Amino acid sequence: MKEFAKKVRCDILRMIYNAKSGHPGGALSCVDILTVLYKKILNIPLEWDKSIDFKKRDRFILSKGHASPALYAVLANAGYFSTELLNGFRILGSKLQGHPSSRVNLPGIEVSTGSLGQGLSIGVGLALSMRLDNINSKVYVLLGDGEMQEGSVWESLMNANNQKLDNLVIIIDKNRLQIDGTTDEVKTLEPLDEKLKAFGFEVQTIDGHNFEEIETALINAKNSKNLCAIIANTIKGKGVKFMENNVSWHGKAPDKEQLDMALEELNAL
Amino acid sequence: MLSKVEEIKSPRNTYGETLVELGAKNPNIVVLDADLSCSTQTAKFHKAYPERFFNCGIAEQDMMGTAAGLAYGGKTVFASTFAMFATARCLDQIRNTICYSKLNVKIVATHGGITVGEDGASHQALEDIAYMRAIPDMKVMVPADCTEVKQVIEYAANTPGPMYIRIPRTNLKTIFDSSYQFNPNSGVKLRDGKDITLVTNGETLWEVLSAAKSLSEIGIDAEVLHYPVVKPFHHIALKESAQKTKKVVVIENHSIIGGLGSAVCEAICRYCPSKVYRIGTKDTFGQSGEQRQLMEFYGLTDRKIYEKVIEYMDVK
């Protein structure tokens, strides 16, 4: 998993460098979570909609759609589509849109996201439809912590609790930074765990870069009969020292020198 | 096609009843509401199929996102609340989640237009058609009586993709008899005329037909076109009529900006340049009042339309 995550991080940086735009900080912060999800937890056939088990698959929704390069790199490296496609990220005509699009038929992408605060509602609806159809898989939604400032997220949390959805798992990539500063400076979310508990969630707080902790939390959530939320404490820009905890890398592409420096650091791991 | 018997019926009741009928035939249909199910009449579906009804509470953004998720899971989803809250409140969800993902969600909004009445401007959706029309892949329908409401809802249930259907709060007079067949691919000519073309839909159709009758008594021969489908706009019927009359009036219970009037202007300037007058609310908010008085105030009654058309006929 360590090697996989390293490869994904390098791909993310190359993609954003190629595109001359994108969001490295929030993509790098969720790499380890996505790695564990796709390597250990999610039951999603690599053949995608050509699989006879397609309907029974787990569903993953990246609500923080700006972390798309992380998802694309994970999907490609896991084998859902060719890693060559990664070179087209954000380029005219590419299936790898700036934010995930379900219009382009890219294996692994369920729904379009990008406008924040909407993925959880989609997850709730999807979980409801799966319950109606007796599909016993789960819906996983990855949210950013900054995104939790959207009121619509709290509407969905209320709905999930009201519908007693035991087939929905939410993971919050809590990197504590948003464009204008720290989440505490801009509009604090704290106490996030208490708030989620008050909304009826069973909450686990973990180190979002520790594979074991991530896996254990996700397995607990998978086996739980309650609504589950995982707060994953992460570092924005994780893996590249000059990007780590530096908000200026929220939505900026590295230049060639910075890319080389970052790749060297990652490859030295 | 036009009914000889004039009854007054609630389109919201028709909507609720049609949902129940469709729900019996199609177990895949689910219905969502945002705490207005007694008003929108989705409560009928709730009563009949409680497991397939989801009340999202007073949370329209969440309702539209949840509707999207259910549709993505394969359901045919009807989501209802008042037109004001079914559009402006959750426009981003409708655009970025429902339409961008091209999901099978039917937004059936009741209480469209000025005729919401006494509740006033905060509840009078005068821009909903404009919002919905601007979103790619969104189909927009404004049926005119209960016969048509039923057929439009049935059409929606059997046609994939996002759709916005606007239903008024008011009870509607019967316009169509049982031989009427809703055609999603064309405007409908309901009266032949050679002097002027009157284009409308929704609850103003009855008013326009009544005005046209009065106009004929003073020698003005008005052609009446009903456009229940505002988007995609099918221009043929309009073009044929405008080529003949050279003068078009659009009447709608909506702002003159962005609604049917705009759709007509867009088609006319491309296919058959001619004069178009738009009757609707101007660039303004509504206000409280009894519904008929409001219609009179904003020029939407048969009498006001009659007067306005005479005025336009004199404008060279």
Explain this structure.
- The complex is a heterodimer of chains A (269) and B (316).
- Chain A has helices spanning 2-19, 24-29, 31-41, 68-78, 119-132, 151-162, 183-187, 192-198, 211-223, 256-267; strands at residues 59-62, 139-144, 168-174, 177-178, 181-182, 202-207, 228-233.
- In chain A, strand 6, helix 9 (211-223) and strand 7 (228-233) form a beta-alpha-beta unit.
- Chain A is α/β, with parallel strands linked by helices and 269 residues long.
- The model of chain A has no long low-confidence stretch (mean pLDDT 97).
- In chain A, the strands form two sheets. Chain A has a five-stranded parallel beta sheet with strand order 1-2-3-7-6, with helices on both faces. A two-stranded antiparallel ribbon of chain A has the order 4-5.
- Chain A has a single domain (2-267), classed as 3-Layer(aba) Sandwich (Rossmann fold), CATH 3.40.50.
- Helix content of chain A is 41%, strand content 12%.
- Chain B is α/β, with parallel strands linked by helices and 316 residues long.
- Chain B folds into two domains: 8-173, Thiamin diphosphate (ThDP)-binding fold, Pyr/PP domains (Rossmann fold, 3-Layer(aba) Sandwich); 188-307, Rossmann fold.
- In chain B, the strands form three sheets. Chain B has a seven-stranded mixed beta sheet, sandwiched between helices. Chain B has a five-stranded mixed beta sheet with strand order 9-11-10-13-14, with helices on both faces.
- In chain B, strand 6 (139-141), helix 8 (146-157) and strand 7 (163-166) form a beta-alpha-beta unit.
- The radius of gyration of chain B is 19 Å and the shape is globular.
- The chains are: A alpha/beta (269), B alpha/beta (316).
- Chain A binds chain B through residues 101-103, 110-115, 117-118, 120-130, 132-133, 151-152, 155-156, 158-159, 162-163, and chain B through 30, 51-52, 54, 56-57, 59, 61-62, 64-75, 92-93, 96-97, 100-103.
Q: Which labels suit this protein?
A:
heterodimer; A: 269 residues; alpha/beta; Rossmann fold; two-stranded antiparallel sheet; 10 helices; B: 316 residues; 2 domains; five-stranded mixed sheet; 13 helices; 40% helix; 21% strand; globular
